[in-house]
Give the backbone structure.
Amino acid sequence: MQYVLPLVLTLAVTGILPVAAGVQYASEPIAQAADVRDTLPGKSSTGRHRLGELSKNWRLYEPSTRTPGAATAMLVFLHGCTQDAADLMRGTRVEMFAERAGLIVLAPEQEASAHPQKCWNWYDPRHQHRDEGEVAWLSSVITMISKRYNVDASRVHIAGLSAGGAMAQLFATAYPEQVASLTVVSGVAVGAAATVPDALLAMRNGPRDGSTSASVVLSRMGERKRAIPLLVMHGTTDAVVSPRNADALVQQWSDVLDVLSLARPRERLQGASTGKTAQLRAETDAAGRAWLVDWRVRDVGHAWSGGAKEGTYTDPDGADATAMLFAFIAEQESFAARSGRP
C-alpha cells in the first residue's frame, strides 16, 4: 500500500515516526485529490442506525483495494458543526487515501433535530459517558458496521474535526476497547465542558485549570483504562477553538501515559510544507511507537489543513492533514501487526 505525503510529512514520518515496511512516501500537489474523488473505484453506501431514541444516518466508503474475504481496518470519521458526511469526505479527500490504503471509512452524521447546527453534543453530560447518548450510539453503529462489512474490531481508528474531534475523544474514553487510535483536529480536551457556557469559554480561552487532568480520562475509562495512540492537529491561528485547547489536550494525554508508565523519548521536527509550516512533536515508547503526536500548522485557522476547496472548513494551502492522519494510522497498524496486539 502507498501513502503520498508532502515534504514536511515525509520528514515527520521518516524522522520521528517508525514507518511500516513497504510503505513509500512521495510528494504530490494537494489539489489533485479533488479531481479524482468522483472516479474512485470503491463503493459508497448510506444507511440509518437506531439505538433507543437516537436515530442517525451514516455514510460508508468501501475501497476496491481491500482483500476479498479478509477482515480489514476501519476509520470512523466525525464531522464538525454545520457539516455532513459528504461535505467532510469532499473537503478532506479521505476516500482517495482510503482507496490507496484499503481502509473502510465510516462517517456518521449528526441530525439537525439533535442540534440546530448539526454539532455533536460533546458538552452535554448526557452524551459523554458509556452506555449513554451519542457515545453509546457511536459504539452501536461501529459494532453493527464492523459485523456487516467484516471489519477487524481491534483495528477501528477514530478521528474528528472540531465538535467531531471532541466527540471522538469522548467516545475513546467511554469505549477504549473499541479504539485502535484517536485523532483530534481542532478539538478540546476531555472534561473541558459540561454546559453550553463551559463550552463557549473553553473554545475561546481554553479549559479551566484542573478541569482536564489525566484523572478525568482514566476515571471515565474505569477498569478498561489503557493507552490509546493519539494524534492532535491544530492550526496556530484558530479563532474558533483556541490552540490553548490543543495544549491542554496534549498535556492531558501525556499525563495519562505517565500514569500508565509508558517511557517516551520526546523529539521535535520542523519543516517546510506546501506553502505553510508545520511543527511536530512526538512521544514514543522504548520500541519507537508514537503514542502521542502533536502537529501544529502555522497560519492555519479553524480548518482542515491541506483540504480541498470543495469542502467547508478547509485551508488548501496548509500542510496535508489527511496524509498525516493516514501515516499515523499506518504506523499504528504496523506496530499492532508486529506485536500481535492493538
The chain has one domain: 7-339. The mean pLDDT is 85.
